Amino acid sequence: MNLDNLYKVLEGQPKFRATQVKEAIFKQLIKDWSEASTLSLDLRQKLNQECPLEINADISQSKEKDTSKVLIKLEDGEEIETVLMSHKDGRHTVCVSSQVGCAMACKFCATGQMGFKRNLTVSEILEQVLFFARLLKEKGERVSNVVFMGMGEPFLNYDNVMSAIDYLNDANGLNIGARRISVSTCGILPGIKKFTQQKLQINLAISLHAPNDKLRSELMPINQKQPLKKLMAAVGEYVHKTGRKVMFEYLMIKGVNDSVKYAQQLATLMADPLFMVNLIPYNPTGVYLPSDKKTMNTFRQYLEHNDIEVTQRYALGQDIDAACGQLANKKKNK
Ligand code: SAH
Predict the structure, then answer these.
(1) Cβ 220 under 6 angstroms from ligand 1
(2) Ligand 1 atom at shortest distance from the alpha carbon of 152
(3) Which residue's CA lies nearest to atom 11 of ligand 1?
(4) Would you call 95 a catalytic residue per the annotation?
(5) Fewer C-beta neighbours within 10 Å, C or N terminus of the chain?
(6) Is 20 helix (H, G, I), strand (E, B) or coil?
C-alpha cells in the first residue's frame, strides 16, 4: 500500500472521495479495491494499479497461539517484522517497527546488531497494523492497542510515526484510542521534547535498562552522548508539563543490571510518582542471559518497598522469536 500514490490518483476528485477511500482501507479493512463498492469501477481499477492493498507477508504463530509474528516484505525488497500479542483479557496489541534495522546499536538487542537501513514510510507503518486488523476482523475482533516497540527507534522517524498515529487514531478508521498507543524510545532528547510540546494522549515509554551512566553507556551507546541526567531532566519536564505517567522499561539481564545495588540506584532515579518501572524478562539473542526468577523477584520487591509502581512483562512468543528485541529477521542471516 502506498498512500502517496493513492492521493495522486484522487487528485481533482471531490473531498468526500478521500473519506470514502480511507474508510474502505481502515474501517472496512478491504484487501482489494474490487471490494470498494461505493467507488466507480474505473477508479477501483486505477487504485488497484497505483495503490494495491495486498500485503506481502509471511506469518508464524506461537504454539500457545497468544503471539503471531509476521515478516512483511516491502516494495524495495527490505523486510520488517511485526508482532501481534493476544491477551487473556481480550486485548490485541500490535507491536510495530518504525525503521528497517536500527542505528542505536544497543548491545542486548538483536535489531541493534543489524545496523540501520532506512526509515519506514507512513504507509509501511500502517500496513503492519492493517495486516493484523484484517486477520482479526475474520474472527470478529479488532486491534485494541499499538506499541512502537518493534524494530527501530521511533523518535528518529518522528514525523512518519506521528502521522501514522493520526491514522490509527482516526475515529472513521481503525479508531484506536491515543491512550492505547505507546511509543518507546531509547531516549532521543529532541524527540522527547517535541512529544512534550505536542501534549498528546499517547503513552511514552523509555528504554532505561541501566540506572547509572557507566553501565548504560556500555549497553546503550546513545547514553555516551546523552547522559542520564539529561534524559531524566527531559522526562521530568514531560511529566511536569503533561501530568502523564511514563513507563521506564528495564530489561533483567543476568549478572549485568539485576543486583540489589542497581535496584537501589533505579529507585533513586524514579523520584517522581508518575514514573513507573516495567521489568522485562530478557530474551537471549546472543551474549547475555535472562535473570533468574528469584533475582527478578528480589529486584521487584526492593522497588515496591520503596513505593515505586512496578509491572512485570510476561514473555510471549519466545518459541517464534517474537519477543521484543528479537526482531532481526533470522531468514536474512541464514
Ligand atoms: N528503539 C526503541 C523501541 C524498540 S525496543 C526503544 O529502545 O525503546 C522495544 C523494547 O524492547 C525496548 O525496551 C528494548 O530495549 C526491548 N528489548 C530489546 N532487546 C530485547 C531483548 N533481547 N529481550 C527483551 N526485550 C528487549
Answers:
(1) no
(2) 1
(3) 324
(4) no
(5) C
(6) helix
Question: Cα of 325 to ligand 1 centre, how many Å?
Answer: 5
What is the Cα–Cα distance from 280 to 296, expressed in whole angstroms?
Answer: 9
188-224 per-position pLDDT tens digit: 999 999 999 998 899 999 999 999 999 999 999 999 9
CB distance 232 to ligand 1 below 6 Å = no
At 215, the amino acid letter reads L
Instruction: Encode 145-170: b = buried (16+ Cβ within 10 Å), e = exposed.
Output: bbbbbbbbbbbbbbebbbebbebbbe
- Catalytic pick among 81, 124, 127, 249: 81
| DSSP β-bridge partners for residue 205 | 184, 247
Distance between CA atoms of residues 65 and 67, nearest Å: 5
- Residue 317 above 80 pLDDT? no
Q: Is the CB of 249 under 6 A from ligand 1?
A: yes
Least confident segment among 253-257, 264-268, 312-316? 312-316
Which residue among 149, 153, 287 has the greatest number of ligand 1 atoms within 8 angstroms of its CB, and so is best to mutate?
149
Would you say the CB of residue 282 lies under 6 angstroms from ligand 1? yes
Cell numbers describing residue 84: 501481534
pLDDT at 97: 96
Closest among 240, 253, 255, 314 to 282, alpha carbons compared: 253
The mean pLDDT of 90-111, rounded to a whole number, is 95
According to CATH, the topology of domain 55-333 is: TIM Barrel (3.20.20)
> What is the residue with the minimal CA distance to atom 17 of ligand 1?
325
What's the pLDDT score for residue 334?
A: 38
Which string of DSSP letters, residue by residue, matches 53-85? Answer: ----EEEEE-TTSSEEEEEEE-TTS-EEEEEEE
Query: Rounded distance, CA 323 to CA 281, Å?
Result: 10
Q: 58 is written with which cell numbers?
A: 509471511
Active site residue 78: no
Domain(s) labelled CATH 3.20.20.70 in the chain stretch across 55-333
What is the Cα Rg of the chain in Å? 21
